[in-house]
Amino acid sequence: MQEKKDSPQRGLLRGTSVVGGATLLSRIMGLARDVVFARLTGAGEAADAFFVAFKIPNFFRRLFAEGAFAQAFVPVLAEYRQNGGLAAAKELNDRVAGALGGTLLLVTLFGVLCAPLVTGIFAFGWWWGGNEPAKFAMATDMLRITFPYLMLISLTGFAGAILNSFDRFAIPALTPILLNLVLIAAATVAAGWFDPSVMALAWGVLVAGVAQLLFQIPFLMREGLLPRPKWDWQYPGVRKILRLMAPAIFGVSVTQISLVLDTVLASFLPTGSVTWLYFSDRLTELPLGVFGVAVATVILPNLSRQHAGGDPRRFRHTIDWALRCVTLIALPAAVALFVLAEPLLTSLFQYGNMTARDMQMAAWSLRAYTFGLLAFMLIKVLAPGYFARQDTATPVRFGLIAIASKMILSLLFVVPLHLYFQLGHMGLAMATAGQAAINAWLLYRGLRQGGVYAPEAGWRSFLARLLLANLAMAAVLLGVLHYWPDWNDWPWWQRAWRIGALVAAGGATYLGVLLASGLRPRHFRATS
Questions:
Q1: d(CA 483, CA 143)
Q2: Is 253 helix (H, G, I), strand (E, B) or coil?
C-alpha cells in the first residue's frame, strides 16, 4: 500500500469533514430510527427493557470502538509504523486480531450465559426486591440476543481503527449507518412477527453487528490491511496495548461509565425514566457524535504521529485547533438544545405510544444535559493529548475523581428533585453534566501544567465573538417560540417545517454574527 501524504492543515480539515459528514448522515438515520422506536414502544415497560438490553453492549461498544481500545491501539500502531514500517504495522495487527478475537469470544459466552447477573448489575432496581419481575425477565431475554453485538462491534472498531490510522476515515464513519438501517427495518417490517414486538429490535441489533463487520472487510483487503489472526499474548505490542488499555477504560470512557450509572439509578425511578433519559441523551449525542467524535477520530492518529516524530510544536497546534473547533460547535448546540428542548422532542418523537408528558419529562433531562455538552466535547479532544503520548495513568486518576464526584452530585440532585418534583431523572442528567465539567477541567489543567499544551493567541476575541453570536441566536429562537407556543396541537408536517425554520433561523443568525464580527475560516486553518 502506498503511504498517503498530505499537508497537516489540509489533512486535519479534510479528515474532519469526511468523518463529520458521514457521522452526520448516520446521526440523521439514528434520529429516524428513534422516531420509529417511539412509535413502536412508547415509554412503557417494554421500551425500558429494550433500552437496557441495548445500552449494555452499546456501552462496551463505546469503550472498545470509540474509547479505550482505540486510544491504546492507535498510538502503538503509529509507533510500530514509524519505527518498523508497514510490515511491522501489519504484524502488530495480526497479533492484536488474535488476542482481541479470542478474548471477546470468551466475554461474549460469559455475557450470554450470565445474562440475569449482567442485567441485575445494570438495572439493579428492577432486580432488588423483585419489584419489576416482568421488566427484568424481558430485559434478560433480550440481552441474551444483543450481547454478542459486543464481539461483533468491537472487531468492527478494531477494523475501523486500522483504517483511521492510515487516514482512511470515510468507511469507519459510514459503518454505523448500517445499524440504523437494520433497526429501522426490524421495527417496521419484522416487528409483527414477534411477541412482544420489541423482540424484533433485539434481533435487529445482532444482525446489524454482523453487517457492520462484514462491510469493512473488503476495504481492509483492498488496502492490504486485513489482519490474519495470530494468538500470541507475549508479543510486545500486544502486551503494551493491554497495559495502556486497562487504565484507559477509566480515563477516556468515564462519560460512558457515568451514563451507565444513570441507567442503574434510573431503574429505581418511575417507569419511563430510562426512556426519557435515552431520548434526551440521543439529542445530546447528535452534536457530540457528529463533531466531537469526528475531531477526536482525526486528531488521535495525527497526535500519535507527531509525538512519535518528536514534534511538540505541531502537537500543541493540533490540540489548540481541535479545542477551537469543538467550542465553535458545542456552545451554539447547547444553547439551541436548551431553548428548543421540548419542540425538538415533540417534533421527533411524540407519535404513536409516546405522549406529551413523556416529551415534557425528556425535555427536563435534555436541558440538564446541555450544561455539560461543551465539557463532553472537550473530553473527546483533550483525552487524545494524553493517549497519543501513551500516558494512561493521568486520565485514570482524573476519571476516578470525576466518577466519585458524580456519585455525590447524584445524591445532591436526584433525591430532592424526585421527592419534591418527580424529576429524579433530571437530577441524573445534572449530575452527569457536572461530572463531565470536572473531568474536562482536570484534563485541561493537566495538559497545561505538564507543558504539553498552551493556548495560542486570539482565544479572548474568539470567545467574545462566540458569546455575542450565541446571545443573538438565543434571542431569535425565543422570539419565534413566543409566536409558536402550542407544538402539541399541530400535525407532524407543521411541526417539521417549523422546527426546520427555527434551526435555519438560529443557524443563520449564529453564522451571520460570527462573520460580521470578523471570524473567518482562515483563523482555524492557521491553528491546525
A1: 46
A2: coil
- When pLDDT is averaged across residues 163-172 and rounded to a whole number, the result is 83
Instruction: Find the mean pLDDT for residues 275-300.
Output: 84
pLDDT digits (tens, 9 = 90+) for 301-326: 888 888 887 888 889 999 999 999 99
What does each C-alpha distance from 2 to 5, 86, 222, 297 come to in angstroms? Answer: 9, 10, 12, 22
- Residue 175 C-alpha cell reads as 459503518
**How confident is the model over 435-492, as pLDDT tens digits?**
999 999 999 999 999 889 999 888 999 999 999 999 999 999 999 998 888 887 788 8
Using the predicted structure, report yes or no on whether residue 258 has a pLDDT greater than 90: no
Sign of CA dihedral 402, 408, 411, 412: negative
Q: Where are the domains of the chain?
A: 8-456, 463-528
- Residues contacting residue 416 through CB under 8 Å, at least 6 positions apart: 427
Count of CB atoms situated within 10 Å of the CB of 233: 12
User: Mean of the pLDDT values across residues 337-345?
Assistant: 94
Alpha-carbon dihedral 257, 260, 265, 266, rounded to 10 degrees: 150
Q: Across the chain, how many H-helices and E-strands are there?
A: 23, 0
The dihedrals phi and psi of 267, each to the nearest 5 degrees, come to -70, -15
Query: In degrees, to the nearest 5, what angle opens at C-alpha 350 toward C-alphas 262 and 507?
Result: 85
What confidence score (pLDDT) does residue 253 get?
A: 58
Average pLDDT estimate for 410-414 = 89
Mean of the per-residue pLDDT values of the chain? 84
Nearest Cα residue to 161 out of 68, 287, 56: 68
382: CB partners within 8 A, 6+ apart: 319, 323, 440, 443, 444, 447
Q: Show the cell assigned to 322.
A: 481541535
Tell me the residue type at 348: L
What is the C-alpha to C-alpha distance for residues 54 and 31, in angstroms, rounded to an integer?
Answer: 16
Angle between helical axes of 373-387 and 273-287 (0-180°, round to 10):
60
Distances (CA, A) of 217 to 67, 157, 263, 480: 21, 12, 34, 49
User: How many of the other CB atoms lie within 10 Å of CB of 310?
Assistant: 7
- Residue carrying C-alpha cell 476575541: 461
First to last CA, the chain: 27
Does residue 259 register a pLDDT over 70?
no
388: nearest Cα among 290, 287, 311, 449: 311
* Cβ neighbours of residue 523 closer than 8 Å, sequence gap 6 or more: 324, 458, 462
